[in-house]
Write a structure and sequence with these properties.
It is found in: Cell membrane. With 302 residues, this protein is mainly beta. It is built from 4 helices and 14 strands.
């Protein structure tokens, strides 16, 4: 049992890996009546940050606040409602809001017939409301990602990568991973990853989520190293049924200057974070573990 089924005749080594990713795709949006308007979104817009360690992020929804400058303006009335200046002590920061009180209670620009504390902040403040209609980026399912995984089994001095040698440039540009027809293509369609992870409705993840991609290398190096190839597994990690703090979002800003005044566009990005895990083990014949396991077996029989 130990020698045959547990490969007691082999030495084993765990995989050492490095992963890089490259996303491709373009989306056009025409959200009239919002601060976004009509625009093209390319990789530099919706993949933030451009590179992560063993992960990548794709924006699926966003709240965009254009042309903010530093000054005094009314706070979100849901954060800092007031009836008089006494409700807005000067210098007090709005910890759940966007700035520091000036000491004034002013009419709200967001809600008629309401008042809120005036603050020193990046103005106008964000209106934290997603565009109607589910996700801003329905075409994100057709984006693709190239996952390059370079691995080594140091004990055996064997290096492999998931871009197999028989692919040429043309094949690599045109192939798309399919577990049945092209299981070694390293280019993955985002919609296929979601489907294989059990997400069948893209609108269900309009506020984001976390998906794992596992690259597994299970190699028998008693055969030629060309037979040492990866397999892939996909899984949604966040709980789709959670009611509080659902999805995944963060804020970032693009800064610029006009007439010596700092301006910025603030983006609250919702999206999918894909985390790439690499697992694996390789075995190769070695007479030492074989004789040790045979000796142990004979001792038990004796």
């Amino acid at each position: 049992w130990v020698v045959v089924y547990k490969k007691g005749y082999q030495d084993f080594d765990d995989v050492v890996s490095g992963v890089t990713t490259k996303v491709k795709g373009v989306q056009y949006t025409n959200l009239t009546g919002t601060s976004i308007g009509a625009r093209i979104w390319d990789v530099a817009d919706y993949v933030v940050p451009p590179q992560e360690n063993n992960a990548f992020f794709i924006t699926t929804n966003a709240v965009v606040t254009r042309d903010q400058t530093q000054g005094a303006c009314d706070e979100d009335p849901s954060v800092a409602p007031c009836f008089s200046d006494a409700d807005c002590p000067a210098g007090k920061p709005q910890m759940l809001g966007n700035g520091v009180n000036t000491g004034r209670c002013v009419p709200s620009s967001q809600a008629p017939n309401k008042t809120s504390c005036e603050i020193l902040a990046w103005c106008p403040v964000e209106v934290d409301q997603l565009p109607a209609g589910g996700t801003m980026f329905p075409e994100a399912v057709n984006f693709t990602v190239l996952i390059k995984d370079s691995i080594e089994f140091p004990l055996f001095g064997v290096k492999r990568r998931n871009v197999l040698d028989y692919y040429n440039s043309s094949q690599l540009q045109n192939c798309v991973y399919n577990p049945d027809t092209d299981m070694y293509c390293p280019v993955f369609r985002i919609g296929d990853i979601l489907k294989l992870a059990g997400i069948d409705n893209f609108t269900k993840i309009a506020t984001g989520g976390v998906v794992s991609i596992t690259v597994n290398w299970d190699c028998n190096l008693d055969w030629d190293a060309s037979y040492c190839n990866p397999t892939y597994r996909f899984r949604r990690l966040d709980d789709e049924n959670t009611k509080i703090a659902k999805g995944w979002n963060f804020r970032y800003a693009n800064y610029y200057r006009i007439n010596d005044t700092d301006h910025r566009t603030l983006i609250k990005a919702y999206g999918l974070r894909f985390v790439v895990y690499v697992t694996g083990r390789a075995g190769r014949f070695n007479v030492i573990p074989l004789t040790m396991n045979l000796g142990s077996g004979l001792a038990l029989l004796g």
